[in-house]
Design a protein that fits this description.
This protein is of the alpha/beta class and about 500 residues long. It has two domains: about 5-360, TIM Barrel (Alpha-Beta Barrel), CATH 3.20.20.105; about 370-490, no CATH class. It has helices at about 45-50, 60-65, 70-80, 80-85, 95-100, 110-120, 135-155, 175-185, 200, 205-220, 235-240, 250-260, 280-285, 290-295, 295-325, 330-335, 340-350, 355, 380-385, 440-460, 475; strands at about 5-10, 15-20, 25-30, 30-35, 55-60, 90-95, 125, 165, 190-195, 225-230, 245-250, 260-265, 265-270, 395-400, 410-415, 420, 465-470, 485. The longest helix is centred in the middle third of the chain and has 29 residues, at about 295-325. The protein starts with a strand and ends in a 6-residue tail after the last strand.
Length: about 500
């Protein structure tokens, strides 16, 4: 049991939590964003990260510090917190990114973890191998063995109160990610970053990111705090939290500002192309695109970075409220409409609906059916599973319209897409109080018919009649032959 991480609320696989960081003497509320700080170039004053932005934790690169004589000596003498002017939790990376970029680094896990401890890091990282996407299985397994050795080396070091990351690798092989997660969880280490996903995100392969994360989550224990390395664009935070990620680090706010790029929750805009600033953060309230373009280079970069950080943290607060209120999947769907690749990611998430259903609360606020893909949400799966446990009479009329006042059936139940059969006694219970389209499309009707079919299969001794209002044959063909059909659109003609 990892006592340093407390889960306080769930929605889907997303959660609100508290991560105790004992060496820093702070507790970080999750989901949390850790801005990436370059120890050589401070784009934003780190003291303002707490006072202005409310940031509780940041991440910096211990390998860069270790490799730069001037910075190394200062870090050893002053400690990271004084050197960076930051009182919150500080996580340090190990040089694995440089290893991925350049093929080799001149430091071992034992050396870099001990160095991270010496400079006062609160959460350290071993030298894992970030295996690129799409490599063959032999290479992915070989790299994974090297990473597992690094985790063992890190676990053998007495780090006192310093937490230690246990990165989860495995390339784009979900079963290897699951194996790696299971191994990492057994090490006794503290925080579990899912690594080497930046190339997938840079390629807009959000569906693959989802499959990788869900694979890792199957191996990790429920009380493992999960860090999605390199994920910090506001567009994808809701999706990543819905997958069960708790920590994120963002260099995007600074890197994109350097290139004149302006972050939004639906994508990235170029400052040169903007006529208006579609945001009300302090930077956007006080400036226009023209005034930002006319600013001196360093000032423009700082102002853009501050906007990018404001919009990212605002989205994270929005995600937290969605988890608390039980509307996270609705938020994910709204964000998914901003880009086709994000929609692929949302649909990939729903492919893992059984995994989501394991932690999804049985009762929330109102369920909103926003699209055909709403029919694949875990709430629908759960309702269909319940149908087999219901008490059903000998004869039953299922109807999509108002039940008739006179009938020869033992009972009449309504059918509502995408849920299917709804007994009157459950009609006021979540999620059957849902707001659904008055003109459901074929996908929602198919989900409803699947519910009717499930009821008929689970209760073969009940005579079931389904009264529809002209539903297409391709939908009705999903019903077993035992279900009698009535077309309300043709009755009386």
């Amino acid at each position: 049991m990892r006592e340093q991480f407390e889960i306080r609320d769930h929605d889907g696989a997303g959660r609100l939590g508290r991560l105790a960081v004992p060496r820093a003497g702070v507790t970080v509320e999750t989901p949390a964003l850790l801005p990436v700080i370059n120890p050589n170039v401070l784009t934003i004053d780190t003291g303002r990260l707490q006072s202005t932005f409310g940031v509780d934790a940041l991440i910096t690169n211990s390998y860069i510090i270790h490799s730069t004589d001037r910075v190394r000596e200062r870090a050893l003498e002053e400690g990271l917190h004084d050197m960076l002017g930051f009182d919150g939790a500080i996580m340090t990376d190990s040089g694995s990114f440089q290893l991925a970029e350049y093929g080799d680094i001149d430091v071992t896990t034992a050396e870099i973890v001990e160095f991270q401890h010496a400079i006062g890091s609160d959460i350290a990282t071993p030298v894992d191998v970030p295996t690129p996407p799409d490599v063959d299985r032999d290479r992915a397994e070989a790299d994974l063995e090297t990473t597992e050795t690094a985790l063992a080396d890190a676990a053998a070091i007495d780090t006192g109160e310093m937490l230690v990351n246990a990165p989860v690798q495995g390339s784009t092989h979900p079963d290897l990610r699951e194996r790696a997660g299971r191994h990492a969880a057994a090490t006794g280490l503290d925080v579990f970053p899912i690594g080497a996903v930046v190339p997938l995100m840079n390629g807009y392969r959000y569906a693959d990111v989802v499959d990788v994360v869900m694979g890792a989550k199957r191996g990790l224990d429920p009380d493992c705090p999960v860090h999605l390395f390199g994920a910090g664009h506001p567009m994808m935070l809701a999706l990543a939290v819905a997958c069960g990620c708790d920590l994120f680090d963002s260099a995007a706010y600074a890197l994109m500002a350097r290139d004149g790029r302006y972050l939004t929750v639906s994508g990235t805009e170029h400052l040169e192309e903007l006529t208006y600033l579609p945001c009300s953060c302090p930077i956007c309230a006080e400036h226009t695109p023209a005034s930002l373009r006319d600013a001196e280079d360093a000032r423009r970069e700082r102002l853009l970075a501050e906007h990018n950080l404001h919009v990212t943290l605002e989205e994270l607060r929005r995600v937290k409220e969605a988890v608390r209120s039980g509307t996270l999947l609705e938020l994910v769907e709204r964000r998914a409409r901003g880009h086709p690749a994000m929609w692929d990611g949302y649909r990939a998430l729903l492919d893992h609906r059984d995994q989501l259903e394991a932690t999804d609360p049985v009762s929330k606020g109102t369920f909103f059916s926003l699209s055909a893909d709403s029919a694949r949400r875990p709430e629908i799966v759960r309702h269909h599973d319940r149908l087999g446990r219901l008490s059903v009479p000998e004869s039953l009329l299922l109807t999509v319209s108002k039940p008739p006042s006179d009938h020869d059936y033992d009972a009449v139940w309504r059918v509502r897409p995408p849920f299917g059969p709804i007994p009157p006694a459950l009609s006021e219970i979540y999620p059957l109080t849902a707001e659904t389209p008055s003109r459901p499309n074929a996908a929602l009707r198919r989900a409803a018919v699947d519910g009717v079919a499930r009821l008929a299969t689970d209760h073969p001794d009940t005579a079931i009649t389904f009264a529809h209002d002209g539903w297409e044959e391709t939908v009705l063909d999903r019903l077993p032959e035992s279900v009698a059909l009535e077309n309300l659109a043709t009755i009386g003609r």
